[in-house]
Amino acid sequence: HLAKALQWSLRANEFSENYNAMDTHAHLLYKIGNKEEAIQWQNKAIVLKKKQGFDTKSLEKELQDMKDGKIKSRQ
Predict the structure, then answer these.
(1) pTM of this prediction?
(2) How far apart are CA 54 and CA 1, in angstroms?
(3) What is the pLDDT of residue 71?
(4) CA nearest 48: which of 12, 23, 66?
(5) N or C: which end of the chain has fewer CB within 10 A?
(6) Which of 29, 34, 35 is nearest to 6 (CA)?
(7) pLDDT in tens, 18-59
(8) Whole-angstrom Cα distance, residue 57 to residue 9?
(9) What is the rounded distance in angstroms from the CA atom of residue 7 to the CA atom of residue 58?
């Protein structure tokens, strides 16, 4: 199910720039064990959210948790 969800989240990101979709894609990548790409997508979400003038503390915490391995992955 994660592989299918990953395909759909990538498709969603192809249609529009949305930090929520980027965050979701990052978490799915992380869950399947692709930590480096997940971190890249989480960074994209943070940059976009900042650009739109919103607070990014929650996304930044999730990014740090990804880097520290605090989010459970499939592996």
Answers:
(1) 0.91
(2) 32
(3) 84
(4) 23
(5) N
(6) 29
(7) 999 999 999 999 999 999 999 999 999 999 999 999 999 999
(8) 23
(9) 25
